# Entry
Amino acid sequence: MISLLPSAQFRLGIRCVISSGLRLPQRFPTLRRSSSNCSSTKSSMAATDSNAVLPPVAKKVKHELEMFGDVRVDNYYWLRDDSRSNPEMLSYLQQENAYTDFIMSGTKHLEDEIYAELRGRIKEDDISAPLRKGPYYYYERTLEGKEYVQHCRRLVQNGGPPSVHDIMATGPEAPPEHVILDENVKAKEHAFYSIGAFKVSPNHKLVAYAEDTKGDEIYTIYVMDAETRAPVGEPLVGVTGYLEWAGDEALLYVTMDEILRPYKVWFHKLGTNQSTDSCLYHEKDDMFSLDLEASESKKYLFVGSESKTTRSIFYMDISKPENGLMVLTPRSEGIDTSVSHRGNHFFIKRRNEEAFNSELLACPLNDVNATTMLLPHRESVKIQDITLFSDHLVVYEREKDLPRVTVYSLPAVGESLQSLQGGQTVDFIDPVYSVESVESEFSSSILRFCYSSLRTPSSTYDYDMNTGVSVLKKIQTVLGGFDSSNYVTKREWAIAQDGTHVPISIVYRKDLVKLDGSDPLLLYGYGSYELCVDPYFKASRLSLLDRGFTYAIAHIRGGGEMGRKWYENGKYLHKKNTFTDFIDCAEYLIKKKYCTKEKLCIDGRSAGGLLIGAVVNMRLDLFKVAVAGVPFVDVLTTMLDPTIPLTTAEWEEWGDPRKEEFYHYMKSYSPVDNVKAQNYPAILVTAGLNDSRVLYSEPAKFVAKLREMKTDDNLLLFKCEMGAGHFSKSGRFEKLQEDAFIYTFILKILNMVPAPRG
# Structure
């Protein structure tokens, strides 16, 4: 399972939005023959000859699970060990890693070549687009050869109001660069390192940041002096990545319960011990989780309590912390609210059964019931998010699977608000694209956003909301002779079994792809949690495109690309629409001669890994290669166990199998429960031992059962990162190694591996 956090961080050279945490060096054990009395595996890795090694075979321990008179036998249940310390389990994972390492050793030259390509496209010494905040420009710097970023700032040299034409001064005459925090220094002590939040105090004197050193997304918060880097107070341990300043001398943060559900929000006064912090709210309903964010105005903090269908909001006036949290939008089943602030109004985005694509309202601070409709619900347009400024409102919407950004001028603070009219829409150039909000300065008239497409590198723009002038502030540098004009990106529509039109985003290199069915294609899918998988740029993908691949994204039901109903028609008792949509997209691409079955490769991660597991069970004849990253494949067993992280909160996503109707429906598609004696494509499965979203044991059990049941000789490999979590390795170059490995596996199966260079 995956539970998406709303916080986002910008990282150089990758997509603008990455899930917080959102992320080790793997030591593959030396391959050796297993002893015949090994308690955790059969003698399965003994070589049958000098050129062949048999894959590991996990031992079988009968474990019966009964519900509604139905008995399931899970012979690999023993692989789950929440302490991650069982020697037998670890031995099995290590042998799987060793087997994978051995099998892929023959293509190491290609993996190294692809890794060199991926790294060669990166401008290693670079900075992000500086953001002007108060008296400073803030930005991140990467250094040549270093895995992680430096968090930096410089004083603004000349005053005056911000402008889209502002350029941060550099050079000997400019204010010096100050490195607030160097992640490379901190990461030296850890195999995994990730910062989930980096927050500067309102007076710019202090910084609070949340650090994860295992990949389990359990953070420690540190506070430091922004200039001297001296620590302030003691760390706050065992917390989430939700962190905000409540003035210059206090913090709000969120902690988790034993199943890693964010459930308590705390007030911490700097200089005091964590044990004396005040709990402002305790969410006792295990279907609900807490989140925390600051208003763009920085005058209020908002705490959301949400399930998958319902969300209510508490608020704190930062100028009156003694009042604690106050209810802003009370909990009401099926109503989902998000709140922003400007002047004497709260702005409320609200979704309910009638307004399923959301509507936008405003209310006075002193009367939350006196609402004014600003943007009514529209069946064909989904309001996804809003950003407020002192004089403007920016609405991020979706229509026909494409994002849209519309800017509205607001009346002066104190004047009445009316229905919004005459918004100005920002124009984009590609037929399919991604646009994401980036932090902007509330008091300015400058909107910052990040744009990319399957052929356009990540581009940061400043947009003057008064004049409509857009200025490119930063475009991701892609070295190695990249030319976006060599690539074609387009939109296709597959027709699903029930007549639904399913969008597909496509990119290929126009001088290599012949569109006669002879080209290889990699099809990606997700289709859960109302997540929109927009077509964004990824430089590493070029190593496939430049080898003649077409890359496609199937925007299947269960995602949010086509509005709320698109999501609802791919969840609960409609979940199989996600899988059949993907199959229909694959068959459409074959029909249109983008590829053939013999050249069709598929890929998905997490809930997208569930998709991959389901479709290879359903259509064994359709795919040549399948890659399932950290896949949620043991759906029924996991969702029946409320002690597993995220289970209780996700009964509203997948259904509660303690109810018989859901039990049988979920069992009918759960990949582990549907592995059978049949041929499967070549499959690569990955996992992270410290993963708190999808337990490592799910992909491990899937692989073990596939090894037991499948009737073909196609390659099945399992790679478990023993020091990482859901998002694999943490360093930027380490992530490229994973991409190179996956691409090499795909090319190996397609017989596209060149001979080693002499």
